[in-house]
Write a structure and sequence with these properties.
By secondary structure, the protein is of the alpha+beta class. The protein is built from 2 helices and 6 strands; from the N terminus they run αβαβββββ. The structure holds zinc ion. Zinc ion (ZN) binds next to loops.
Amino acid sequence: MHEMGLAQNIFDIVLRTAERNSVDKVLRIHIRAGQLRGIVPEQLQFCFGFVARESPVIEGAELVIETVPIRGKCKDCNHEFLVEEYRFVCPECGHEDIEVLEGMELLVSNIEAL
Ligand SMILES: [Zn+2]
């Protein structure tokens, strides 16, 4: 289950940030997860809840996951479009050589804390 590794990574980032900012309690953590990452939010939240028990500062924090849709750019006609159902085909010209602009990211976008 790759969600457990991701949860551990997020935990490490949040813990480092919390320590640097002398945070007493982390309330909410916002994640931007590209659709191509194939993350199941419920699984990631479950794993994070488990990992978060390592730190009283982070334990009980809510993980808010925003899924970022896949944005592609046609390498032939430069048309930008949303990739639906993993169909990497340009809707304008039918070209199949598509550059992924968004949808691969996984980052902590915001941390709410006391
Ligand atoms: Zn095109």
